[in-house]
Amino acid sequence: MARIGFVGLGNMGGGMALNLVKAGHEVVAFDLAEPALARARDGGCAIAESAAEAAAKVDAVVTMLPAGKHVASVYGEQIFGAVKPGTLLIDCSTIDVATARAVIAQAAERGFEMVDAPVSGGIAAANGGTLTFMVGGTDAAFARAEPILARMGKAVIHAGDAGAGQAAKICNNMILGSQMIATCEALAMAVRLGLDPRKFYDIASKASGQSWSLTSYCPLPGVGPESPADRGYEGGFAAALMLKDLKLAMQAAQGVDAAVPMGSAAEALYQSFVNAGGGHRDFSAIIAMLDGRQPG
Ligand code: NAD
């Protein structure tokens, strides 16, 4: 089993680090927040004093940080100067494609193999070890990262070269954001047209309107399998994070001159929802705003 440095023990990284411990790895963990460190300590991680210390004397480093600026500074100022030759670097944060490529290029210049490996699946999947990893990097780097990532997820897919994991992640979430809004609009309109939403669900789930947002994550309570809607839109995938991913998608689209009218509309609607105070709620709670109600 490997010795792994883990930096960023928040909602996602906290559970992921513990799954590496459960798999028998020795994990040296660091976060800026004391409660995150306490959870890692209780779960069997060794605690480092800094990101640099977590990255020194390990076989691999995993990072799970909020955004591109954190990833660039933690690697640039802490990790690159501390890691021993041959250490594998794995960034699981969701960040912009350009920063992912730049940091991986800096790693390569210093002789390190590095992958971008963002995840699909929320906090429950991070805790349960059932994430899906989308990985960008060379074949050799992927081959080394795959067995480590497999201990934290149910699927590990090589998307392509450096940055391809981030590209796949934001394109996937651009589908999800647009699809959720379309599903919410249709459900709200069906109710206004006098349809029983359960009847409409039965029909659309077997017809061409079927989608993941409808049949796995229905935004109306009491309709379809249990979802955040049945828990008052708590937990799940926060609307603020959906907005972050849509912004990354819009930035990437601009860079390659891609036409994204639906993604752009979804970004504007999630921005309004977040501005109205809905950022902490599950992203399916946008149904209230689309139906002309207060986000709450
Ligand atoms: P979070 O804010 O809960 O955790 C981030 C952690 O990084 C925090 O504990 C913070 O203290 C730590 N941190 C920040 N700067 C640091 C530094 N310089 N050194 C050490 N630690 C530092 O965020 P999260 O929900 O765990 O998300 C992490 C990443 O995963 C984000 O990029 C997010 O977009 C992505 N993601 C989140 C979800 C989700 O449902 N929460 C799902 C998929 C992907």
What does this molecule look like?
Helix content is 50%, strand content 13%. It is an alpha/beta fold. Helix 8 crosses helix 11. The model has no long low-confidence stretch (mean pLDDT 96). Nicotinamide-adenine-dinucleotide is lined by residues 7-13, 30-33, 36, 51, 64-66, 70, 74, 93-94, 119, 122-123, 237, 241, 244.
List its salient traits.
single chain; 296 residues; alpha/beta; six-stranded parallel beta sheet; three-stranded mixed beta sheet; 13 helices; elongated; binds nicotinamide-adenine-dinucleotide
Q: Helices, strands, pairings?
A:
Layout: E1 3-7, H1 13-22, E2 26-30, H2 34-42, E3 46-47, H3 51-55, E4 60-63, H4 68-79, E5 88-91, H5 97-109, E6 114-116, E7 119-120, H6 123-128, E8 131-136, H7 139-149, E9 153-160, H8 164-192, H9 197-204, H10 212-215, H11 239-256, H12 261-278, H13 286-290
Parallel strand pairs: 1-2, 1-4, 2-3, 4-5, 5-6, 8-9
Antiparallel strand pairs: 7-8
Helix pairs in contact: 4-5, 8-11, 8-12, 11-12
Nicotinamide-adenine-dinucleotide (NAD) binds at residues 7-13, 30-33, 36, 51, 64-66, 70, 74, 93-94, 119, 122-123, 237, 241, 244.
How many strands?
Answer: 9
Hetero groups bound?
Answer: nicotinamide-adenine-dinucleotide
Biggest β-sheet strands, sense, barrel: 6 strands, parallel
Beta-strand portion reads 5-15%
Instruction: Determine the structural class based on helices, strands and strand pairing.
Output: alpha/beta
